[in-house]
Amino acid sequence: MQPFNKEGHRRASEQNYTILCIDDESVNLKVLASIFKDHYNVVACKSAKQGFQHALQENPDIILLDVLMPEENGFELMEKLKQHPKLSHIPVIFITGLQDAEDEEKGLMLGACDYIQKPFNYGIVRARVNTHLEIIRQRNLLQKFALFDSLTELPNRRKWLQDSVDYWMSAKTAQSAMVYGIIDVDHFKKYNDYYGHQQGDVVLRKIANTIKRALFNYGGAIFRCGGEEFYFYFPMEKNTTTANILTTCLHSVTQLAIPHHAINTSCRVSVSIGAIQVIPNENTSIEQVMQQADERLYLVKNSTRNAISLLELNPNNQQIPLDIA
Ligand SMILES: [Mg+2]
Q1: What is the pLDDT of residue 212?
Q2: Where are the domains of the chain?
């Protein structure tokens, strides 16, 4: 038995991967479990039917699938997996006693990422599974880079487009009130011109962190969607008002007490907030709500700044400005 390739194993095991093994013969399941159980979470089951249920429950990172099984065979299960929106992305490796090239071709054509014939060599099974887990690790990393802003480590505009719609749809189904809005750093261009972009980046990171923490306490989220512009949403709370939550965000920034001498010697870095309180409904869309939030932000930017403008949209799309104490 070959030892694990240390580097490959180290990288692949940075996450706690789950391997789902489906085979009607207990002895095969035992062997597979013995190969992987020390390094990964192994789930074993003896039929295609159970395998499908476990795939749904466990959301495994990879599936090792036998072909010849009573009732439903591995090829049939594979077709079901590929048709299911939550399971179609999971890589499947067939491990089978079928030796014909035609069977191998069929397995690969059905979408398997690999095909291993029994009796198998332990080292080869381990190496092939590790290779696929490493590909998964890299894919997850790419996905993370694509959805997060490297400066502030906040989710980015692309992630906003996904998550805000998801939240909108669930709140619409539940008929629960939400708050959507935009936060913009006041006089940020002047800050960058005066202190330099490097210091400007430090400020953006601090502001991102403090508002993220403030919103997190209320089940909300913040996204970096432009240079100094952040989008956010949070569900309406029973125990406090929207105005209180927004004021907490606003004050969390002034409490950082970051000097902004480009304006005057007593000035501190601050933000302006435009926000809309709404129960998602058929008469409006998330895009329209964000457009309204942008208009509220514009009002603040053209007056005092370091302030909030909040509007309630009722189900008939009527606008009700809400006072911020
Ligand atoms: Mg079998």
Answers
A1: 97
A2: 6-147, 157-322
Please give the distance, rounded to the nearest whole angstrom, from the Cα atom of residue 47 to the centre of ligand 1: 9
Write the CB contacts of 3 (distance below 8 Å, at least 6 apart in sequence).
Answer: none
Ligand 1 centroid distance, CA of 38 (Å)? 24
* Surrounding residues of ion ligand 1, Cβ less than 5 A: 24, 66, 68-69
Q: Tens of pLDDT along 40-93?
A: 999 999 999 999 999 999 999 999 999 999 999 999 999 999 999 899 999 999
Other beta carbons within 10 angstroms of residue 262's beta carbon come to 15
Q: Specify the amino acid at residue 173.
A: T
Residue 211 one-letter amino acid: I
The reported pLDDT for the residue numbered 263 is 83
Single out the residue of 6, 14, 116 nearest to residue 61, CA to CA: 14
d(CA 299, CA 273): 10
> Helix, strand, or coil here: 199?
helix
Domains 6-147 and 157-322 share a fold: no
Nearest 5°: CA angle at 103, between 99 and 106?
A: 155
pLDDT digits (tens, 9 = 90+) for 198-215: 999 999 999 999 999 999
Residue type, 123: G
Determine the topology of domain 157-322 in CATH.
Answer: Alpha-Beta Plaits (3.30.70)
**Averaged pLDDT, 87-110:** 93
Please name which of 94, 84, 86 lies closest in space to residue 132, comparing C-alpha atoms: 94
Q: Which residue has the tokens 């058929």?
A: 282
Q: What is the DSSP letter of 237?
A: P
Whole-structure pTM value:
0.69
CATH number corresponding to 6-147: 3.40.50.2300
